[in-house]
Design goal:
Elements: E1 2-7, H1 48-65, E2 70-75, E3 78-86, E4 107-114, H2 122-136, E5 141-147, E6 167-171, E7 175-181, E8 201-205
Parallel strand pairs: 4-5
Antiparallel strand pairs: 1-2, 1-8, 2-3, 3-4, 5-7, 6-7
This protein binds coenzyme A.
Coenzyme A (COA) binds at residues 111-114, 118-124, 151-154, 156-157, 159-160, 163.
Amino acid sequence: MNVEIVDISHDNFGSVLDWSGQAQGDDVGCKFCLYWEQPDRAQWPDSLAEREAVKREWFGRVWAEFGSCGKLALVGSRPVGYSQFSPPAYLPNVAEYECGPPISDGVFIACLYVREQRGKGVGSALLRAVLGDLHARGIDTVETFARSSSADSPSGPLRFWPKNGFSVVRRDDDFALVRRNVGSAAEGRATGPRWPRLRDSARIVIGARGTMPPRGASSN
Ligand SMILES: CC(C)(COP(=O)(O)OP(=O)(O)OC[C@H]1O[C@@H](n2cnc3c(N)ncnc32)[C@H](O)[C@@H]1OP(=O)(O)O)[C@@H](O)C(=O)NCCC(=O)NCCS
């Protein structure tokens, strides 16, 4: 299976996962989800168009200040996976987790999500692309909250993460803060922050050798 991993940019934001045609309520797609950005759901705009605008604004602001902060996994032209990541200061809802807080100078993976074709390596490919990107930009520490009781959490089940080089830092009854040190690339952030109109992409063939950066202190 050919999976293409692309940065989320102005040009392709419209392709961010959206299942509003098949569902109602708050669970209608990553494009409209403000879970990390606005912890108080009463403050979420009523209309999906307004929620999408808030989400776009978040991406634009974080791109300007930090750089690329989201990726899509595409099979053909079909978006099947989504990841969103940034320094935790841009994600107010991290404060709600007992096993936190994430380290302030690291990057927090807020979402890792594969909607279709799970169990075929798409989630691992998406994560490898995120870690490779952060490594190339000179970021060392990457964290997320994984969940023990369910595979459905912002970043998936706890069992997924050690397989990808992450170690548990702290845990509560349900969630665990997991961390991997990806090691800073010598060139650091060569290009600086940007919110590109042109698409950066990487093609990944599931089953082929991956692009994972060298494992750091948390390797196993
Ligand atoms: C976590 C997730 C991204 C993994 O994606 P995926 O494409 O299924 O992952 P992969 O196929 O690359 O699997 C990698 C490994 O993790 C394991 N794994 C994946 N999902 C698992 C699960 N639910 N329970 C246990 N192990 C799991 C696989 O067995 C595989 O291990 P293996 O290679 O030793 O067999 C996906 O399961 C997911 O999206 N979960 C829901 C997350 C969620 O709710 N996000 C909400 C965002 S708001």
